[in-house]
Amino acid sequence: MMKNGFSAYFKSALFENLRVVLIVVFVSAFVFVPMLSDWQTHSFFHYVVRDNGYVDKIYEGSVMANQIPEGALKGFDTNFGIAVALVIFLSLVVPIFNFAKFKNRRNLDTLYSLPLSRRKFALAHYLSGLIAVLVPTAIGFLVEVGVIIGYGAFSFIDLGWLFVYFLLLMITGWLFYSMNLFVFNEANHIFDGVVFVICWNLLFYVVAFPSNLLSSFFDELATPFGYIMEILSRTEAVIETTPFYLDWYFGFETVIAFTLLWATLGLISVVLFFARCNKQSPERVGGISDSFFGYKLFIPLYVAPVVLFSHIGHGIRSIGDVAVFFSLAFVGYIIFRRGFKFKLSDYCTFGALVLFAIIKAAICHFDIYHFLH
Q1: Which residues pair with 49 in a beta bridge?
Q2: Which of 45, 76, 355, 370 shows its CA 20 to 30 Å from the CA of 321?
Q3: C-alpha–C-alpha distance, residues 373 and 350, integer Å
């Protein structure tokens, strides 16, 4: 009976998720359909090597087609934009809709009155949401493969790497869905959950931004959606048998490092999600979201890098940048506590950040004074 109860509840959760996905896909179709009809989205092109060594792609039928030299290498622009857009958008939206009902005390009382354990409730929603992310993405991918077949372009692409692309699409969708689901579920309120998802997806970008690493290294790899677009676009270049684009401009080591980072964080999210799902209780719903994996983690992580890498004492702009982030941190604590009822841990964290900023300012001032004298 327990098994039948899980199966019935899983089907119900799956139907709810797919209903949301159908609405999303229907609305987004107004954007995706024109992409299929765009001649430059799926079209033949030729590689042209300029005098300065730059490799240009000139599409057949474009105004520059008369510049294609005889014997130029021919290729086909696969551009799986629909599948990429679906996996990014759905991995963000589905977790929120999937677990929004768990942020309502009345709904939670009703759910927990059913003859299922909390872990099985979590498993049903996790799997149904994952299906709702991956199945539409796979369909979008197959539609675009159908377009390639229609163009008769299979002789211009690497079919082995096409399969690798599909696996990457599914794996990245699973990992980032799991991350977003975990951080959203750590909140006790829908608003806090949305804030957690946004903060999580921008975390490494904000952490790296003050260090100026982004401009030279990994600006597009430092966010989940940026990583998905970049890793898939580079794989797409290999699918197109592009001899000029195989040397990824990030450097192979950087791509591997971020792949390991996101894969590790995704797997940790899966483990933590199921390890902590039993802690969800109706009494906590609607209350303060005091999980460590929420405001307690994001506020200091958003402020500390700005303090660390800003040259306090070198100019008003740097001081202003730090002041802005401290102001945002203060607002964050107000949102966190829903007012000014701060706890000792909040004062300690904020005070430690201020002390860190003062020490950094003193060090910068000492360096300037020592340099001038």
Answers
A1: 55
A2: 370
A3: 35
| Range in 260-264, 308-312, 365-369 the model is least confident about | 365-369
Phi, psi (5° rounding) for residue 55?
Answer: -100, 125
How far CA 258 is from CA of 136, 156, 255, 261, 265, in Å, comes to 26, 30, 5, 5, 10
Q: What is the DSSP letter of 70?
A: T
Strand partners, 75: 45
Q: How far apart are CA 237 and CA 158, in angstroms?
A: 10
Predicted confidence at residue 215, as pLDDT, reads 47
Is the pLDDT reported for residue 126 higher than 80? yes
Higher pLDDT, 132 or 101: 132
DSSP per-residue codes, 186-236: T-SSHHHHHHHHHHHHHHHHHHHGGGT-TTTTTTTTSSHHHHHHHHHHHHH
Q: What is the pLDDT at residue 369?
A: 42
Average pLDDT, stretch 140-151?
80
Give dist(CA 223, CA 245) in Å, integer: 22
C-alpha torsion angle, residues 125, 32, 232, 210 (rounded to 10): -80
Reduced 3-state DSSP string for 92-150: HHHHHHHHHHHHCHHHHHHHHCCCCCHHHHHHHHHHHHHHHHHHHHHHHHHHHHHHHHH
Question: What are 262-293's pLDDT values in tens digits?
Answer: 889 899 999 999 988 877 777 778 888 888 89
Evaluate if residue 19 carries a pLDDT over 60. Answer: yes
DSSP three-state, residue 44: strand
Question: What residue spans define the domains of the chain?
Answer: 1-39+79-284, 43-76, 294-373
- Tokens 């929420």 belong to residue: 294
Give me the amino acid identity at 236.
E
Contact between 44 and 76 (Cβ < 8 Å) = yes
Q: What is the 3-state secondary structure (H, E, C) of 224-240?
A: HHHHHHHHHHHHHHHHC
